[in-house]
Amino acid sequence: MHRLSARANYLSDEALQEAQDVIAEKEAEIAAINEQIEALQETDEDEDENLRAALQELQDKVKEVEESLNGRTVQIRIGNFLKTKKSVREFMKTVRNSRDRAEFVQNWRACLVKNGVYQLPYPKAEEDEGGLEDFNLLIPQPVLDEITDMWGTEADNFLQLLDITGLKAYKTLVEVGKGHHSRAKGHRRGDPKTEQKLVFIQKEIRAQIIYKFIRLDREMMEYEDEGGALMQYITRELSYRILHEIMRAVLVGDGRNGNGEEEEKSHPDNSITKIEAVVDAGGPWVTEYQSSVILGTASSEESGDASDTVSHEGIAECLQLANLTPPTIDEVVNALSTIEADGEVTLFLSKMAANSLRRFVYSADGTPIFLSMEELADRLGVARIITTHLLPHITYKQETNEKGGKIVSIIALVGKAYKLVGDLTIRGFENFNLTFNKNEYLNEVYVGGALAVPHSAVFITQLCHPDKTEED
Fold first, then answer.
1. What pairs with residue 287 in β-bridges?
2. How far is the C-alpha of 161 from the C-alpha of 73, rounded, in Å?
3. pTM tops 0.85, yes or no
4. For residue 256, how many other CB atoms are within 10 A of its CB?
5. Lowest-confidence pick of 15-29, 60-74, 394-408
6. CA angle 248, 252, 256 (to 5 degrees)
7. Is residue 34 over pLDDT 90?
8. Is 157 left (phi over 0), alpha (psi -120 to 50) or beta?
9. DSSP conformational letter for 402
10. How far apart are CA 276 and CA 265, in angstroms?
């Protein structure tokens, strides 16, 4: 009975309750029979034998129940191992050492068996009813919580919007000739034919390694990380941050090409150069639509050549104004009409800008109402709207002599026109540095991308001007 109770710890809650009820019932029957045996042991030998036979029968039934419980291999509850820090470490190691989903399932099953969570019915086909849900029961709870949190962020399924080619490189040629010499011509008898010229733009898409590298003291990891909170952070940091960085690079660019902090300037290899930003793609791939909504005025400072430039405070003011006074909904519709590529269009903007576009008033004296995101997307003719803190984005560079700058307020993109190359499998590596007594964690992915279809994106800009001084 003790063995039966111990093994019941690996059942699901429903099966566990059922098993406990059966065990309790049989234990009560056995106790009652033992009392009868003791009372009749010295009086009626035949009755005693009958009771002992009944006891043996009940014990056989308990054995059958125990064997049947051992056969319940589909419903297995998360054991104590899956709630430990060790399970999180083993899970991350399994992810790093698995090339695909099938290999991960096989390796993780072996790890569970090794650590006492046994008799698993996996691997299961994904299409089997309940298979994926049951498999989630066998993931360490801290990791399962982190995965849930990670996919609830703004980078949610972003890569799925794009065209993951699976190629190591991608080349495309686009014929852009629109002049007189590129048009088909009519022939007049006796005249020579004029050669028609073709004008091509070539684009080659290559990949590079994007990585996250973290060092943590062994003392902190082994002795101070009670509950695995730090391991949860690593799970998020090494995976979500890479996805978020790719999203940033695709939409507005890396932002570290000589314009970042001094530390970044001294390490140009830190920048992501193989992912083309939509706002930097240029024609004929993307269209810039300039809004008529001017972002007021911003603070200015005198540069060395006596030309007005926007200060850091002015840039922050411009970004805030862009949130409060985004382009009008008419301008958004007009900008979207410049997209000629086939496919579903996704609109990216800040949450404040989205709320401004959602606001609708039926009359001058009417009460404002706010459309849902789905209703707004339907009115604009886009497949989906994604809000992100990456927008609005300043395109002004402090090194230039431009008076003022531009703010990118909204980006619209045919996702499948953006081609990704490389291997999007995030590879993980772990090492222990003996010199500094630190655990080293490295995750990296080999990826590159760019727009490969003409007129497949548009971004809306708003002008930002500095104030003039009184002397001016």
1. 458
2. 38
3. no
4. 17
5. 60-74
6. 75
7. no
8. left
9. -
10. 20
CB-neighbour burial class of residue 120 (10 A; exposed 0-12, middle 13-18, buried 19+):
buried
**AA letter at 413:** L
How far apart, in Å, do the first and last CA atoms of the chain sit? 94
Give the residue ranges of DSSP H helices in 289-328.
312-324
Estimate to the nearest angstrom the gap between the alpha carbon of 425 and the chain centroid: 13
Q: 348 near 412, Cβ under 8 Å?
A: yes
Q: Is 348 exposed, middle or buried (0-12, 13-18, 19+ CB in 10 A)?
A: buried
Question: Is pLDDT of 396 > 80?
Answer: no
Q: Which residues contact 430 (CB under 8 A, 6 or more apart)?
A: 92, 93, 96, 439, 440, 441, 442
State the sign of the Cα–Cα–Cα–Cα dihedral 150, 151, 157, 158: negative
User: What per-residue confidence (pLDDT) applies to 345?
Assistant: 98
Residue at token pair 């129940």: 65
Q: Which residues of 228-240 are buried (b: 16+ CB within 10 A; e: fewer)?
A: bebbbebbbebbb
As given in the structure block, the two tokens for residue 456 are 């497949």
Look-up of token digits 């799925």 = 160
- Which position has the token pair 């309940």? 130
116 burial type by CB count under 10 A (0-12 exposed, 13-18 middle, 19+ buried)? exposed
pLDDT in tens, 276-294: 999 999 989 999 999 998 8
- Check if the beta carbon of residue 205 is closer than 8 Å to that of residue 116: no
DSSP state of 82: G
Please give the pLDDT value at position 289.
96
Task: Please state, in angstroms and rounded to a whole number, the distance separating the CA atoms of residues 451 and 287.
Answer: 12
Token pair belonging to 196 = 């028609």
**Is there a contact between 278 and 455 (Cβ–Cβ < 8 Å)?**
no
Over residues 171-225, the pLDDT tens digits come to 998 877 776 767 788 888 999 988 877 778 889 999 999 998 888 888 877 777 7
